[in-house]
Amino acid sequence: METQNKNNDMLKRRFKHLLKNTFILTVIVTVILSLIPGKAILAEQQNASTEGKELIDNGDIEKGKEPWINYRNATVDVSNKESSSGTNSLLVTNRQSTVDGPQQYITGEVMAGGTYKFSARIKYTEGPDQKDFNFNIQNGPSWQNIDVMTTATINRGEWGTIEGTYTIPEDADLTETFIFLETSYANPADPENDLIDFYVDDVSFLDITSNPNLLENSDFENGLDPWTNYGEASVRITNQESSSGSNSLIVTDRVLTTNGPKQDITGKIEKGTTYNFSAKIKYTEGPDQKVFNYNIQNGPSWQNIDVMKSKAINKGEWGTIEGTYKVPEDADLSETFIFIETSFANPADPENDLIDFYIDDVSFGKELRGAPPVKNPEEIYEGTEAVAKTPGNANPLISHKFGADPNAMVYGDRVYIYLTNDQYEFDENGHVKNNTYSNINTITVISSEDMVNWTDHGAIPVAGSKGAAKWASQSWAVAVGHKEINGKDKFFLYFSNNGSGIGVLTADSPIGPWVDPIGKPLIDRNTPGTEGVVWTFDPDVLIDEDGEGYLYFGGGLPGSDSDRTQEQSEHPKTARVIKLGDDMVSTEGEAKLIDAPFMFESNGIHKNNGKYYYSYSTNFTGMRDEDDPKTGEIAYMMSDSPMGPFTYIDSVLKNPGEFFGVGGNNHQDFFKFQDQWYITYHAQTLGKALDTVQGYRSPHINKVEFNEDGTMKDIQADLKGVPQLASLNPYERTEAETFAWNAGITTETSEAPGSMIESLNLHVTGINNGNWFAVSQADFGKNGTTTFEANIASTVGGTIDIRVDSKDGPIIGTLEVSPTGGEQEWNLMKTSVTNLTGVHDLYFVFSGESEENLINIDYWKFTEVQGGLDGEDGQDGEDGQDGEDGQDGEDGQDGEDGQDGENGQGGEDGQEREDNQDGEVGQKGENSKGEGANVDRQNSGTTIDRNQSNNYQLPETATSLFNILLVGTLLLISGCTVLFVVKRRNLGNERKA
């Protein structure tokens, strides 16, 4: 018994000793950890996992082949037989020379003088015991600019690594840049030793270029110096908030909106040089959103302040203000500094305008030279006169871009036209070359409710790595239809993957977004009934009254040009029709032959009065009799059944050369809209007007008339087109990308909200002095209009003259556009207009001095006079010419927001205020010429030492110690509990023993 008690006492002493040592160790570790900033640890982990920006897409080959291609003559495919990581690798075969290998373009991703870290894994299984491989880069279109960045020796049968770093030469040609892998040079090359097959995996090209930041202590991890305050502000370091690292700079005690943090960069910048800048900003008290300015002052005078960028920041969130700034050639660089402020307000509301804020990660550094701007294939014309579609004509439908193979779908009160997205291709000298169609993987959509004013809905990404159907490489000649499925309208888009097959996309609206429901071709050469079809393409869809769907497709000629028989030319037998399943994304049975005489391409189908009309474009070979269709015409057949048999009738539309003096192929679609039949087709009319008749086509529409026996009358194509079916309502929001005629503008995807679908909106851009666009027949009614407003984004500003009836017609109003701080920074701007009644063509004519894009415009709208001219809302009423919003009212010429009002030329803060050309976001800064400028800017040189602040805060070490001690205590308690249970169990076992 005594021995057992001694053992128990000994075990208790051991247990207490263990607890004591555990406690001491925990305290030591906790104290050490508390001395290391937690955010710094996190930042270290983040930096360790992201050495730089990765420029290679799909480097691990787990997403398929895209965007890898072959360099020269190699075959590059995805393989799952070998991989360094993951499942796949690239297998390179069929090499004809040692340079042949996998290639990926990084054009526009690299900078002259930039430094990059690269690596790749390589393996080969047959050939010599060892082989040298090169990791290469080519800068520019010439092979003479190839650099072998490094060479590595790889052992047969083993994965080896080739890696190194590379700096782009300062004089590099960056118009075209790509990387590729090859075996070491040999000429002649031994097929067994030099042209071996090999695998590639885990390719990387990281941008590790050091930040060319001229600002010192930009992350505030080294105290306050050299940051000072601009004006009456207190600036100090804090650890309460940070975007990265441990610290940020907090700005408090602000008296004016201009007050903020400042750093002198005198002697560090050069005239005519472009710099990148950025800053992280956060505030926690005040309005839900606040606009901040990142400014520069060149010279000792506040009048030389430039607001380089403005950005709205959300309360409680770190936001980024960034952009580029080019130092003027005439800048006074005797004194230069940057500073950050909130947007102008005078008087300033302490709670809304003089808020405290934090800044972190501030930069201002020289912009490295990158790839030169490439010609935009959509910017086809920069003149000031309309081309092809001229005022008064309705054809071609659009002239700011091309579009071929039109297919029409009527839905609701609009007709939608879907177009092969013809875009200019350029040779190495920048000249337009013949359209090869090989780069087309998007479909353009336009729509109209009046057949003259057309809305551009942009491009649907159909094929390729960025498309909905990534298995496809091209998207030509689509057909679109809609059908109610499960009580909801569903839209179906059938497209040609070149001539090899037909895919299908679905959407819930006529303009998307589109998805691929089956992930493979719907129709290809393995589809039953397609034997003998040369080109499996050019679909058209018919959804009959009973809901059954049918797809028409096919084309091409059997044989070759040298040995084709007359029978093969006259009866190619390459057209087909197949029934679609109820889901419209599957087929039923086999495709049936349509024996269309002299068939070539462009399948079409429509139904009228119970008859089915199959139409097509005729070929260019074989001998023709008098009753045969001529070459390149639209011919048609008729049937009582959608599946045929079809009987040949006649040609209905001659080749475009007969009407427009420029020929080529044709592609048609027949549709009925508001009780009238039409045909849409293409011709090279825009190409002719631009002197680029090289296969770039444009859509047209003309009327279709039927004979009493159901046959169609010959169609007369022309530029006049069809009459306008309805007037445009100027009092509704009108998308700027809706117009009848234009000169020099283009459209692009917009970040501004508000379109048919949230994910897609466009705006008008590419605007220079003298450019314009116009809408046809806007109906201003009997009461007329008082004001005009437009959603605008601009970096340089300009003027919009609103003219009626012609581009040189009377001006009813002028909108002075001030810079908004960026091409995606949108402001709603208004101006008064002369009262206008009745129906007029409306022209928006742009002017400005800058050679840059003057203005982006998203939408516009007029305000209608409410009531009579002399009543409450008339000329002397609230909204009339002399009323609150009239010429002399609050928003009129003499009112608060008019030309002489708050934001006008001579009011409270007229030319010298926030919203004029030299205003808040203007070229000369927030208060550059304003009455309050002397108040805000005269104290710019004042420096106040705010490190003597009475507002004491715990150092970060203390707060970290508290947090980690708390965690450590919890861990200690948990550990002791576990040890106690274990030791007690051991004591119990020893007692039993």
TrEMBL record:
Residues 866-951 are annotated as: Disordered. The chain crosses the membrane at residues 21-42, 961-982. Residues 936-951 have a biased composition (Polar residues). Residues 870-900 have a biased composition (Acidic residues). Residues 913-929 have a biased composition (Basic and acidic residues). It is an enzyme of class 3 (hydrolase). InterPro entries: CBM6, Cellulose-bd_IV, CenC_carb-bd, Galactose-bd-like_sf, Glyco_hydro_43, Glyco_hydro_beta-prop_sf, Glycosyl_Hydrlase_43_Enz. Residues 732-863 form the CBM6 domain. It comes from the Bacteria. Its EC number is 3.2.1.55. SMART domains: CBD_IV. Pfam families: CBM_4_9 (PF02018), CBM_6 (PF03422), Glyco_hydro_43 (PF04616). GO terms for molecular function: alpha-L-arabinofuranosidase activity. PANTHER family: ENDO-1,4-BETA-XYLANASE (PTHR43772), PUTATIVE (AFU_ORTHOLOGUE AFUA_2G04480)-RELATED (PTHR43772:SF2). Belongs to the glycosyl hydrolase 43 family. This is Arabinoxylan arabinofuranohydrolase. The lineage of its organism: Bacteria, Bacillati, Bacillota, Bacilli, Bacillales.
